[in-house]
Design a protein that fits this description.
Elements (H helix, E strand, L loop, with lengths): L2 H17 L9 H4 L6 H14 L8 H16 L10 E5 L6 H11 L5 E5 L9 E2 L12 E5 L11 H16 L3 E6 L7 H4 L4 E4 L13 H8 L16 E6 L8 E4 L13 H10 L5 H13 L1
Parallel strand pairs: 1-5, 1-6, 2-3, 2-4, 4-5
Antiparallel strand pairs: 6-7, 7-8
Helix pairs in contact: 1-3
């Protein structure tokens, strides 16, 4: 055992003794510790001596590190509090478990607000299914999950973008939180970006498809991680990059989530898709009524 190793061990032992309310000057560790032993042998011997004196160390240094590492991993993967945000955008390539990630957040929610789902063809847990996009304006104190928002908002329609901004603004006054998934980030303008509290990004194989200067692209470029580069966001399924200015320092970054056993069963839902497409028609009276209701409420 080297001299510096012995000095570091004695310092650690004195700290343990002090934390247990004992006087460290009453222990002559320099005489008790045999310098011919290895550092591990000397540490084990000192711990046994402490136990004989009625001092029980809580754990070894290695165990302390493992506990610290596990705690940090749990903190890093901690789910964002949906009661503290008004909108969560989940963006990524097709087949990257965006819906799975949304359900993961919803199942982690421990608050009291009712969860509603729009756009998913099957019943999930006790979530209440919405049958029409216009229903969202009638809700208060709710969490609303919209799967593939681009089915309901026209990508290149400026009016629809303006309406989406107004809708998210309305949600804030009604204590609602919107969670939506999409692979088409192009329709999220800078105006809409200002209303989004939290971003979850799944795998993106080609960042050239993102608009220059867009928030998702800036988030990826500003994240220091081997899986984030100027060409792609090279994440595996079950991984996502989270960013929110409401997160504490150290809580943004790449996180993991468990498979929720959710599958997008669109094979037998052709009629549902056709019905949704009809609702997206500009001439659809229900779509127009939605915004008339909004204007009345404001």
């Amino acid at each position: 055992m080297e001299t510096y190793e012995k000095a570091r061990l004695i310092k650690g032992l004195n700290k343990i003794v002090t934390e247990k309310g004992k006087d460290p000057m009453s222990f002559d560790w320099d005489a008790e510790i045999d310098s011919s032993l290895t550092i591990q042998e000397a540490r084990n011997q000192a711990i046994e001596q402490l136990k004989q004196m009625g001092i029980e160390p809580e754990t070894t240094k290695k165990e302390n590190y493992e506990e610290w590492h596990n705690r940090k991993q749990m903190e890093q993967n901690e789910t964002i509090n949906l009661d503290k945000i008004k909108s969560l955008a989940i963006i990524g390539d097709t087949g990257t478990a965006k819906t799975n990630l949304a359900i993961y957040h919803l199942r982690k929610y421990e608050g009291t607000r009712q969860i509603y789902s729009l756009g998913y063809p099957k019943q999930i847990d006790d979530f209440k299914n919405l049958s029409a996009f216009s229903d969202v304006c009638r809700l208060t104190d709710s969490i609303i999950f919209v799967d593939e928002l681009s089915k309901y908002i026209h990508v290149y329609d400026r009016n629809s973008n303006y309406q989406l901004m107004e809708l998210i603004s309305l949600f804030e006054h009604q204590n609602n939180t919107l969670i939506f998934t999409t692979q088409l980030s192009q329709f999220i303008t800078r105006g809409i970006e200002a209303f989004i509290d939290c971003w979850n990004l799944t795998r993106m194989n080609d960042l050239a498809t993102l608009k220059n200067g867009s928030k998702p692209k800036r988030i990826i470029q500003n994240t220091m991680h081997p899986k984030c580069n100027k060409w792609s966001l090279a994440l595996d399924n079950g991984e996502f990059l989270e960013f929110s200015e409401k997160n504490e320092i150290g809580h943004n970054g790449i996180k993991k989530f468990e498979n929720q056993g959710i599958k997008k069963d669109w094979k037998n839902s052709k009629k549902n898709n056709e019905k949704n497409n009809e609702k997206n028609n500009d001439d659809n009276p229900e779509y127009k009524i939605l915004w008339l209701k909004y204007m009345e409420m404001t």
